[in-house]
Design brief:
Blueprint (H helix, E strand, L loop, with lengths): L2 H4 L2 H9 L11 H6 L2 H16 L7 H16 L10 E5 L6 H20 L12 E5 L6 H11 L10 H14 L4 E5 L8 H17 L3 E6 L14 H8 L4 E4 L9 H17 L9 H5 L1 H8 L3 H18 L6 H5 L5 H15 L13
Parallel strand pairs: 1-4, 1-5, 2-3, 3-4
The protein binds adenosine-5'-diphosphate and magnesium ion.
């Protein structure tokens, strides 16, 4: 699923109600070899799809973010015109912001529908969440149009930025939207001149729309996008006259015992999801712990890419397990490759380790 499918409410509904993927059976090497060609092809295909969609894992980062989001969103359910706190999640790419927020928004959607019903008292469909994802060079008018397009509003082709905003407000009011997620906000076209216009626009949304605004982006805090030199979050959110809570997501780190334990717990959870015939307990968490940390530098996005690609190769080549040899041949993104060399040197010199002293779990 890509973001295009989430740009519309039907796509969103589909995402929310999609049944959990079924895990392919774990067959032994012998059983796999005994499969007739067609069944073998089917089995490998099931595993390709499965390994490409592992997750989301309940990482400590995701769990902590969800706790914060529930606190804030639930405390915002006061009536009417009371000011609602906004949220800005600001962290580097590949740390799982989008993944965590979508998982939260899905739970929120389901809870609201369960408690309040599929329809509003006025008979409209209830849409507790509206999600807008920005792409390169989005202007204010495109942003307003994107909100309308989420609702498949017929008036999304013609009009001024202000008209689009008014129509979007109507949609959100009638569908009882409670949470407005704006992903990749850093793509909003942002020049000194338009900065004030944008901040006024978010002020307008925050004041008029009875929603919790949830911004997600990279470098939001220190963009200095306003000519006055106030930071982006400050400017957007101070202007709204409301309190905005900045939240972040951090990579895994291994310089404390607690950090090493979290890394290990996550690898244990991850290796249980792999469907390879030659896996052994501890394949990731014991044998590859240092290696995987060096290659991903603790970034969940890089780790999942590497594991996904590694599993594809392990199935294709019939090795049916992950080890350094195989993973060495798998390419990862450029940023983690660069940091990898330094970390590997440090691991080799035993200056650092990813292993907790006592292995709980
Ligand atoms: N909790 C998680 N469990 C499993 N995979 C995850 C998790 N969080 C992120 N990922 C993977 O990492 C990649 C990057 O995550 P994403 O949410 O897009 O990061 P961001 O929005 O911060 O750039 C995604 O492809 C996703 O599959
Ligand atoms: Mg993202």
């Amino acid at each position: 699923m890509d973001n295009l499918t989430l740009a519309r409410k039907e796509g969103w509904r589909h995402y929310v109600h999609a049944p959990a993927r079924e895990r392919p059976d774990a067959l032994t090497l012998k059983q796999i070899r005994a499969l007739p060609d067609k069944a073998r092809a089917d089995y490998d295909k099931q595993r390709r799809v499965w390994h490409a969609n592992l997750g989301p894992l309940k990482t400590p980062q995701l769990a902590a973010l969800h706790d914060d989001l529930w606190d804030i969103v639930d405390s915002n359910l006061q009536d009417g015109d009371k000011a609602k706190g906004a949220i800005a999640i600001d962290a580097f790419p590949g740390l799982g912001k989008t993944t965590a927020v979508l998982a939260f928004a899905k739970q929120f959607h389901l809870r609201e529908i369960t408690e309040e019903g599929e329809h509003t008292p006025d008979g409209h469909e209830r849409w507790p969440v509206c999600r807008v994802g920005l792409t390169g060079n989005t202007g204010m008018k495109d942003f307003n149009r994107a909100m309308l397009e989420f609702f498949a509003h017929p008036g999304s082709s013609r009009g001024t930025a202000t008209q689009f905003a008014h129509r979007a407000l109507d949609c959100m009011l009638s569908c009882h939207v409670r949470l407005l997620v704006i992903d990749d906000l850093h793509f909003l076209r942002w020049r000194a001149k338009s900065g004030v216009e944008i901040s006024n626009h978010f002020k307008y949304i925050a004041n008029e729309f009875p929603v919790t605004l949830l911004f997600i982006g990279v470098g939001l805090a220190d963009r200095g996008l306003f000519s006055e030199g106030i930071s982006y979050t400050d400017a957007v959110l101070a202007q709204t006259g409301r309190r905005t809570t900045p939240l972040d997501m951090l990579p895994f780190t291994v310089d404390t015992e607690a950090g090493r334990r979290q890394w290990r717990q996550m690898l244990l959870a991850l290796e249980q999801r792999l469907v390879l015939a030659n896996t052994i307990p501890g394949m990731l968490a014991d044998e590859l712990s240092d290696y995987l940390f060096a290659r991903s530098t603790g970034h969940i996005g890089s780790l999942m890419t590497l594991i996904n690609r590694g599993c594809q190769r392990a199935v294709r080549t019939g090795t049916e397990r992950l080890d350094e040899d195989l993973l060495d041949r798998v390419k990862n993104d450029a940023a983690s490759e660069k940091a990898r060399q330094e970390l590997e040197a440090a691991f080799a010199a035993r200056r650092i380790t990813t292993r907790p002293r006592r292995k709980a779990g």
